[in-house]
Design brief:
With 339 residues, the protein is an alpha/beta fold. The chain contains 13 helices and 13 strands. The chain is globular, with a radius of gyration of 20 Å.
Length: 339
């Protein structure tokens, strides 16, 4: 019955990113019908970003009307500390937001139910509904992009914490003596040292000190244009500076994941986000660190896998958020029927 209804009902999923706002229109089988993406006007602040988000929702809604389908709701993946009791984003260091009301702002424009949650937990929920959750009920999803976060699934349920702020993996301190300050205000956070922005910043700092690297040619001589993607590409080509920076970041990530494996004893660890597009240069270094640092009996047999939906993981997770919330489906029941 679910499969019969799936083609007639659509959901909008929004990945509210600091670089881009990406939206998908999908049916209940997670098949993408239409996509929209716009660069995020980060410098213009919260209300401008909400205007951009509303425009994308409008465009996706029009596609629903054209196809004469029913739109069930809107799900959103948002970076930041989300208080589930207040239904507010209390703090987002990436967006520089404090106490913003997404539902109150967008709810004035749309009559549809709107649900949002922390981006990494949403990505983990997408895996639970449509990805590794078909095989595993205890796993950790690590999002390594502009920032770093963790979505923790225990016995088929996401770990929320007391008010919904569990999973701030990027803000564990991995180098107490570091001079690198995180957007959260602390020094030596995993996010500051190993996220996409952290990798790019480390490379730029070394180049400004006079280090020689192919990165100078790749960025056209403008050091401020160096990106984590450039660092990964240069590392793959044997550039020593890029290799050292990327390897150090991967080691930090591996140290953090080792701690999560020891704490939660997952069946699998899933990596998502833009930085994992580097491929085996990242995965190999992370695996080596886990092998050296995690308890052998806990880490033994725990695979390290890429996200099922790649760069679309957050948007598809937002779709599954609506599936879980709006349709009141028990995930275990849903997955068993899909099998």
């Amino acid at each position: 019955m679910l499969r019969l209804a799936a083609a007639d009902n659509y959901i909008i999923g929004i990945d509210l990113g600091t670089t881009n706002i990406y939206g998908v229109l999908a049916d209940l089988n997670a098949s993408i019908i239409h996509e929209e993406k716009r660069p995020t006007k980060l410098e213009e602040g919260f209300f401008s970003i909400m205007d951009q988000t509303a425009e994308i929702i409008d465009l996706l809604s029009q596609k629903t009307a054209e196809k004469k389908k029913r739109l069930c709701g809107i799900g959103m993946a948002v970076a930041g500390l989300i208080n589930k009791n207040r239904n507010m984003v209390e703090f987002s260091p990436n967006f520089h937001w404090q106490d913003v009301d997404i539902i109150g702002t967008l709810g004035q424009r749309f009559s549809l139910p709107i649900y949002f949650d922390n981006v990494t937990r949403v990505m983990a929920l997408g895996e639970l509904c449509y990805g590794v959750g078909k095989q595993y009920k205890n796993f950790v999803f690590i999002n390594i992009g502009y920032g770093i976060g963790a979505g923790i699934i225990i016995d088929g349920q996401p770990l929320l914490g007391a008010v919904g702020m569990a999973g701030e993996f990027g803000h564990i301190t991995v180098d107490k003596d570091s001079n690198t300050q995180c957007d959260c205000g602390n020094f030596g956070c995993l996010e500051a040292l190993a996220s996409g922005q952290g990798i790019a910043r480390a490379a730029r700092n070394e180049l400004k000190k006079g280090a020689q690297s192919n990165l100078l040619e790749m960025c056209g001589g403008d050091i401020n244009k160096v990106t984590a993607e450039m660092v990964a590409e240069a590392a793959k080509k044997g550039d020593s500076l890029a290799w050292n920076i990327f390897s150090q970041a991967a080691e930090y990530i591996g140290l953090g994941i080792s701690a999560l494996i020891n704490l939660f004893n997952p069946e699998v660890v899933v990596l998502g986000g833009g930085v994992i597009q580097a491929g085996e240069i990242l995965f190999d270094n992370v695996r080596k660190t886990i092998s050296a640092r995690a308890l052998n009996r806990s880490a033994r047999g725990v695979p390290l896998l890429p996200a099922t939906f790649g760069l679309k993981a957050a948007a598809m997770g937002a779709v599954s958020l609506v599936m879980n919330k709006l349709l009141n489906l028990e995930l275990e029941c849903f997955l068993s029927k899909e099998k």
